[in-house]
Amino acid sequence: MTDLDGPRAQPQSGGPAKQLVVLLHGLGADGNDLIQLTPYLGQALPDAAFVSPHAPEACDMAPFGKQWFSLQDQSPQAIDAGARRAAPTLDAFLDAELRAHGLTADKLALVGFSQGGMMALHVGLRRADPVACICAFSSLLPGGDHLADEIQSRPPVLLVHGEADEIIPVQALGATEAALTANRVPVTSERRPGMGHGIDERGIQLAIETLRANLPGAAAR
């Protein structure tokens, strides 16, 4: 099993972490990508620690960057299989981070972009101890057909997707939302007009609202 690590940001309050936000990057990036969200998220969540682990594999579709699993085959079956292979490594990392901070699972939030969102959804819904919430940007749900048999917890989920996404079409949001709703997962979604494969200011604000609403002790002051 590959050990994960990546850039971190300590609570802006200067005190011990009362919440933990794990940021999961997309294909061909690394942890240095989403850690750039922490100045915005950290201002709204001053008691939260942040970590953005590098995915375990070298990207096989670019000369740089990392991947959680290969996307050379983008069939639903291959994506499901890839997420399953990567899940134990991410699960172990989450457990280790919670232990290191002395926090329980309800203080943990998962924020993922693209392939990182796939991992956040796949792992977060299958953990026996529910995480506080999941935010997935420009992503999709791997293995939705199997979710009814495998779901272990139902944390609130935020889905944000650009209507002009050229990598993962916005229709994926509807399919993901339908699968989550069918499995009684609370879900909020927003389609962003004109936005491609990315995260905009509105998406960041929605994530802040979701994190504040669901992380214990993080409500707006």
From TrEMBL:
Entry annotated with the keyword Metal-binding: no
GO molecular function, one term: hydrolase activity
Hydrolase among keywords: yes
Pfam families hit by this protein: Abhydrolase_2 (PF02230)
InterPro entries membership: AB_hydrolase_fold (IPR029058), LYPA1-2/EST-like (IPR050565), PLipase/COase/thioEstase (IPR003140)
Record key words, sorted: Hydrolase
Domain of life: Bacteria
Domain Phospholipase/carboxylesterase/thioesterase positions: 14-213
Family the UniProt entry places it in: Belongs to the AB hydrolase superfamily. AB hydrolase 2 family.
Protein name: Phospholipase/carboxylesterase
Organism annotation: Limimonas halophila
